[in-house]
Amino acid sequence: MFQPLGFEQRSVTTSLGRMAYYTAVGSPWQEEMTASRDLETLVFLHGFGGGSSAYEWSKVYPAFAAEYRILAPDLIGWGRSEHPARNYKIEDYLTTIREFLQQTCDGPVRVIASSLTAAFTIRVAIAHPELFKSLILTTSAGLADFGQDYSRTFIAQLISIPVLDRILYSAGVATEGGIRSFLDQRQFAQPNRVYEEIVQAYLESAKQPNAEYAALSFVRGDLSFDLSLYIQQLTTPTAIIWGQKSQFTSPEIGRRLAQLNPQAIRFFQELEDVGLTPQLELPAVTIGLIRKFLPLLSESPTAVTY
Question: pTM of whole model > 0.85?
Answer without folding.
Answer: yes
